[in-house]
Write a structure and sequence with these properties.
There is one protein chain. By secondary structure, the chain is an alpha/beta fold. The protein contains 14 helices and 15 strands. The chain has 2 domains: 261 residues, Rossmann fold (3-Layer(aba) Sandwich), CATH 3.40.50.300; 103 residues. Strand 12, helix 12 and strand 13 form a beta-alpha-beta unit. The chain starts with a strand and ends with a helix. Pfam families: AAA_21.
Length: 449
């Protein structure tokens, strides 16, 4: 996949080829994390779009209005309204179970069928209201009918509706700072192109998405991405989606769950999957985890505990060292199949809590992951040990792992902006930037001498 963007967050321009492993480097506050956020949000949007989420959202909203309608119609009309609501419920359940298996023509057929059934019910209600002028609750009934008709007119595959979904996901990942103040008055563009010529294009003008200048051309199914940027993730189970959706309407629940920020989404995915041996079979990967951890995480009484091999008592996750947490969470998302079932694994500075010795081990693990699974790995880093280890282990494979290195370089003329450039054949550029501080300290040491 080729990811290209201009004037997104603080990055003026970038063209990034997503290979087996893609590494983004750069100083602090240079826009490194922009790439991971974009890949996650776009992958989430594509997965929802292809999983018929917009269809489900449309008819969940209509189902809520039908439930509301049941409270206001007379006893003679109630069975017809109730029957249609239940039928909608059945269709939505079936669509959810077969989300990624249904062909588009099947979805269109369901949409046409439901539209006809809803139109028949609304026509019957309107005729009854016209006949019985003194029918009670007329204002309430008229308002509900109008709302349902408005929802019916929404084409769930309309370009504006689809574009709005991607815009919501992107702005959420960037805390509504997708377009920076520096780029506010400029045009911003964001595109992805696959090897099979599938592509997605989003255009922004004056910080607003131009729905008519967007393109969604996706011929094959894609899976979402995992975005891991917090080794302490499993300490925050209380921020799960269940608390957010308690008491919410079905459509709100659907939207909160489906369009959740990356950390909350990952927490829910972890909690609803069980580790299985079939997902972790590679001897090299198992050997690294055995050397570092010699155990694994288990969910007990609503919290995660680390159980060392043959130990009867577990250690609370928050009592583990930061380095152990990094490897333990990675092992968990491999064991429960999340890595295998994702197109991208995004790791934000995963080496940050690790001694150089474990940084090298982590790099080795990532290279093995990219060869064993079809998942592509996107990594941001500012560690020379980690970057060099990724480069060496990738080259050591029998079939060399495709790896690309990029550097986010601050713009000296336009403060607060950067450009991401390909430095795959110029790794010394990265190292020179990283060793600058060490050279400075050596100069200070020389002054003392």
């Amino acid at each position: 996949m080729l990811l290209e963007f201009e004037n997104i967050a603080k990055v003026k321009k970038a063209a990034i080829e997503m290979t087996d492993i893609t590494v983004i480097t750069g100083v602090n506050n240079s826009g490194k994390s922009t790439v991971g956020k974009l890949v996650y949000a776009l992958s989430a949007g594509i997965a929802l779009y292809q999983g018929n989420y917009l269809f489900s959202l449309k008819y969940t909203l209509i189902m809520e209005e039908l439930e509301n309608l049941e409270r206001w119609v007379d006893s003679e009309t109630f069975p017809a309204v109730n029957a249609l609501r239940r039928e909608l419920q059945t269709v939505l359940y079936r669509m959810q179970r077969k989300a990624n298996e249904l062909e588009q023509r099947e979805v269109f057929a369901e949409d046409a069928y439901l539209a006809e059934k809803i139109a028949q019910l609304l026509n019957m209600l309107q005729k009854k209201m016209a006949t019985y002028l003194k029918w009670s609750n007329r204002p309430q009934l008229a308002a509900i009918i109008k709302t349902i008709q408005q929802q019916q007119r929404r084409d769930f595959l309309d370009q504006k509706v689809t574009a709005a979904l991607f815009d919501r996901l992107l702005r959420q990942e960037f805390s509504n700072y997708l377009i920076s103040d520096v780029s506010f008055a400029k045009s911003a563009v964001l595109s992805i192109k696959e090897e099979n010529n599938d592509q997605l294009l989003l255009n922004y003008k004056n910080n607003r998405l131009d729905e008519y200048q967007c393109l969604f051309q996706l011929s094959q199914p894609y899976q979402e991405a995992i975005y891991l940027d917090d080794a302490f993730l499993l300490e925050n189970l209380s921020s799960s989606i269940e608390e957010k959706v308690f008491g919410a309407a079905p459509s709100e629940k659907l939207q909160l769950v489906s369009e959740a920020p990356h950390r909350r989404r990952l927490l829910e995915q972890i909690k609803h999957r069980k580790p299985e041996e079939k997902y972790l079979r590679d001897k090299r990967i198992k050997a690294i985890f055995a050397e570092i951890l010699s155990g694994g995480l288990m969910l007990k009484h609503g919290s995660y505990y680390f159980f060392q091999k043959n130990a009867a008592k577990g250690i609370p996750f928050d009592a583990l060292s930061s380095g152990m947490k990094t490897f333990a969470v990675l092992q968990l998302i491999i064991e429960n199949g999340l890595v295998m079932d994702s197109d991208y694994l995004i790791l934000e500075e995963p080496e940050v809590h690790l001694h150089p010795q474990w940084q090298v081990k982590l790099a080795e693990l990532i290279v093995y992951l990219s060869t064993v699974y079809s998942t592509k790995v996107l990594v941001t880093s500012h560690s020379p040990y980690f970057i060099e280890a990724l480069s060496i282990y990738s080259a050591k494979q029998k079939q060399p792992t495709r790896i690309k290195f990029y550097n986010a370089q601050l713009d000296k003329k336009e403060l607060g902006t950067s450009t991401i450039v390909d430095v795959t054949d110029q790794l010394e550029t990265i190292y020179a930037e990283m060793y600058r501080s060490l050279i400075y300290l050596e100069e200070l040491r020389a002054e003392l001498d």
